[in-house]
Amino acid sequence: MRSTLHHLSDSSAAPQQKSLPQKPPARTAIRCRTLLVPAAALLLGLTLSSCSGAPATPDAAAAAAEGKPAAAAETTPAAPTVGTPFTVTMRNGNTAKITIVSATRTESVGDPAFSVAGKNGGFLVLDILWETEKGKTSSNPFYVSAKDAEGRKADQSLFVANPLGAGDVLPGDKARGSVAFDIAPGTATVMISDPLMQEAARVQIDQ
Fold this sequence. Notes:
Blueprint: H1 2-11, H2 27-51, H3 58-66, E1 86-89, E2 95-106, E3 108-111, E4 114-117, E5 123-134, E6 137-139, E7 144-147, E8 155-157, E9 167-169, E10 174-182, E11 187-193, E12 199-206
Antiparallel strand pairs: 1-2, 2-5, 3-4, 5-10, 6-9, 7-11, 8-10, 11-12
């Protein structure tokens, strides 16, 4: 009887719960996340380093935005030379176009019967063509002056043949004549002045 009760008490006990299989720790996800963070940082660093560079200037950036090349540096106009016309501003909006057609060296000036020798080794004779480019200008031999290589002002001769006349030059008209300077050989600087005797242009001449 006792053995029977003991068997029943054992059979009436609460059934033992079965243990569920435990999930493995999420090491794989953590490991992947750990690897992705440095890789993303490395990729970002490579992208920034490839895009970095010297900053563009505002003009270059604007030109690039408009698809136009950057503007080149401005160039200085060439100085007047013998044989090439050049423009001279004569005040009040009037401009003259002047050409030193030729520059020659001679020992004396004037008529053969009455010639004058130079005191500085000869004369520089300029053949000048004077035209009006805009408005109204006046030619005048005293608008032309010269200095030698040492900066000394040369005397103008009044005995040159076919001298440049003084007077108004209307548009379409021309005045042409010679101006002579008693000047030493070497590089000479010829200046053109406006009616107020202010220098408006200069030409270097090797004589």
